[in-house]
Design a protein that fits this description.
The complex is a heterodimer of chains A (195) and B (99).
Chain A (H helix, E strand, L loop, with lengths): L17 E3 L2 E5 L5 E5 L5 H12 L9 E3 L3 E5 L4 E6 L9 H9 L4 E4 L4 E7 L3 H6 L16 E6 L2 E9 L3 E7 L3 H18 L1
Antiparallel strand pairs in A: 1-2, 2-8, 3-6, 3-7, 4-5, 5-6, 8-11, 9-10, 10-11
Chain B lengths: L1 E4 L3 E4 L4 E5 L16 H9 L7 E7 L7 E7 L5 E6 H13 L1
Protein name (chain B): Sarcosine oxidase subunit delta
Pfam family, one (chain B): SoxD
Organism (chain B): Gluconacetobacter tumulisoli
């Protein structure tokens, strides 16, 4: 009998935790992610349905908005990512919930096997992240609720600020998670040395 | 060189790729159907001006919001004079054509 397949995390367990010099890097890969795209559909109808179901307005600028049970992140014009509140894969199937609620109003795709979230938090995290991202992370330019699609080194990422601790979540393609985690740890060590 | 994306704000050149001349318009009809002649097609596919000064170009924000943009760039100084989403340019052109 063939060996059963076992789900493996995107990071090796030994590499998962980093917590030094006021910077903490966490693996958030259990969080469910789904893409929502209008694809030329009726925006007003989509807005009304989303408002009724989750009590939020879909953002038109690079922001994230927290609804009841999930968060919507702007991911390009008329495109969003929906993220579950639960970070451990528990809770209802996000793609199914979105598909059932939105019906034909938007295209919904499960991104959970494709993207992984890493979290960097602590007083030194802005300095660490600034070593990787080519965007301005100063509070006057990027504050809690703001998101950006950009490059971390050569890796395409979507980043958003969670709180003013500061805490940032970085969404990355799963196969790049180990490289990005390595880069984040290197940036964190460098920032701690420079501080 | 930095380009101000209408969706994402000012970003570095490495997030964008150049996608050609934005001033071209596709000849009517598709070969081999009747429509524009071979000469018009050869010009559309192969022949490009090499303007000195402001030029309208297509750029793709692949590492950002994945929008196609029409960027007006001064080819002598690399100054970016204007950026707009290509889809809005097309919509405005169609509206003008209908009016």
């Amino acid at each position: 009998m063939p060996d059963p397949l076992h789900a493996r995390g995107p990071l090796s367990p030994s590499a998962c935790s980093y917590d030094h010099g006021g910077i903490r890097i966490t693996d958030m890969s259990g969080r469910q992610v789904a893409g929502v795209a209008l694809l030329g559909g009726d925006r007003a109808a989509l807005d009304a349905t989303v408002r009724q179901a989750w009590g939020v307005d879909l953002p038109d600028t690079p922001r994230i908005v927290a609804g009841s049970g999930l968060t919507f992140a702007w991911a390009g014009p008329d495109q969003w990512l929906a993220l579950s509140d639960a970070v451990d894969d528990s809770g209802p199937d996000l793609e199914h919930v979105l598909r059932t609620t939105l019906g034909p109003l938007a295209a919904v795709t499960d991104q959970g096997d494709s993207r992984v979230a890493l979290r960097i938090s602590g007083p030194g995290s802005r300095d660490a992240l600034s070593r990787l991202l080519p965007i301005d992370l100063h509070p006057r330019a990027f504050s809690p609720g703001n998101t950006a699609l950009t490059l971390a080194g050569h890796i395409g990422v979507q980043v958003w600020q969670v709180d003013s601790c500061p805490t940032y979540d970085i969404l990355v393609f799963r196969s790049f998670a180990r490289s990005l985690h390595h880069d984040l740890c290197a940036a964190a060590r460098g920032a701690a040395r420079a501080a | 060189m930095r380009i101000t994306c209408p969706c994402c704000g000012e970003r570095g050149l490495d997030e964008f790729s150049y996608r050609g001349d934005a001033t071209l318009s596709r000849p009517a009809g598709d070969p081999p159907l009747p429509g524009a002649g071979a000469e018009a097609w050869a010009e559309y596919v192969y022949l490009r001006d090499n303007p000195s000064g402001p030029h309208r170009e297509l750029w793709y924000h692949g590492a950002g919001c994945r929008s196609w943009l029409v960027v007006t760039r001064n080819t002598r100084t690399h100054e970016i004079l204007d950026t707009e989403r290509a889809v809005n340019v097309v919509r405005a052109t169609r509206k003008d054509a209908e009016a």
